[in-house]
Amino acid sequence: VSPAEELSFGSGETERKSLIILNNVTKNQVAFKVRTTAPEKYRVKPSSSSCEPGASVDIVVSLHGGCQASPQDRFLIMAAEMENAGSQELTQFWKEVPKPKIMEHRLRCHSLDAVKPAVNLPRESLFDASNGGQQEVSTAFMRVMACNSRLEQKLNSCLWLQKVLTGLVLILVALNLLCLYLLGTS
């Protein structure tokens, strides 16, 4: 599931949509559905479907006009392998699938209004294209934003690891100096 932790929304035209990318890494078809704590604020498309083995699905989450994203808003992505992937009706599948076989992933919402973007995109060039071109650009933009979010998370974990390693190196240097001092005094 990408992004791993949060969906970002803002007040700008391009910021009112966020993209969830589901990758099926199993050998079977996977059924999924997306739920939210604030269904009156968001439109999820598709909210329920299936994904072939090795494929990925783009889920577009749109914030309704006049609504504001809140940190209390959450999304739940549920997925389960469809072992006998026939023409089984998804609603029936979800009624029959055992709870232990359902994988759950939670995402929280983040408002971009508090953070000003470093780069302003020219809206005219993005939205003067045909409707199909606009959709492609919008999807590509959301993919870039999702990738950016993943890279930020990886960078933060690398910085944390670097601090821990620096601390350990300082401790080793101190122990080494202590040993040299003790050897020199004896």
TrEMBL record:
This is Motile sperm domain containing 2. InterPro entries: ER-organelle_contact (IPR053012), Ig-like_fold (IPR013783), MSP_dom (IPR000535), PapD-like_sf (IPR008962). PANTHER family: MOTILE SPERM DOMAIN-CONTAINING PROTEIN 2. Keywords: Membrane, Transmembrane, Transmembrane helix. Residues 1-112 form the MSP domain. One of its GO terms (cellular component) is endomembrane system. The chain crosses the membrane at residues 164-183. Pfam families: Motile_Sperm (PF00635). Gene3D superfamilies: Immunoglobulins (2.60.40.10). The keyword Transmembrane applies.
